[in-house]
Amino acid sequence: MRLRGLLVMSLLLAVLPARGAGLDAGEVWARASIPGTGTAAVYGSFTNHGDEPVTIRSVSAGVAASAMLHESVMEGDMMKMKHLPSLTIPPGATVRLEPGGMHIMLMGLKRQLRQGDRFPMTLVLDDGSTVELTVKTGDIGQMSAP
User: Fold this and answer.
1) Burial of 15 (C-beta count, 10 Å sphere; 0-12/13-18/19+)
2) Which of 29, 37, 123, 131 is the most interior residue, by most CB within 10 Å?
C-alpha cells in the first residue's frame, strides 16, 4: 500500500507544472534528436507570479554534457544562435521559449532523445534557488508542445 502511494505521488508530480521563487514552468518539451547528432533544443513557457523579477542564471540536464540559454537571431540573411548569459522574467510576465526564438540548447547529448522520452532538467535562479523540471520529448518535427 505504501509503495502504491509513492507511485501515485510520483505520477502526480510528473504532470504538475514546476514552481519555484514565484516562477511557474509549463509545457517544457524537446524534439526527438536527429540520430548521430549531439544537440537538441528545449522549449517551454515560464511565468513569474511574484512581485520581483526572476532571473534564470544557468541550466543543467543529465542527458547532456552542457545546457545553455540561446536565442536564434537573423544576421543578414542567415539565422544564427546567440548565447544568452541569463533570462529575466519580469513580474506578472510569461516568457516563451519556442522554435525560431529563445530556447535551451542541450549539447553533448549522452543518448538520443526519442519521442515519448522524459528527462529531468534544473534551472538555477539568480537567488541560488533551483527549479526542477520534467521535459517531455515530442516528434522530431514537432513545432509545439507534445
Assistant:
1) exposed
2) 123
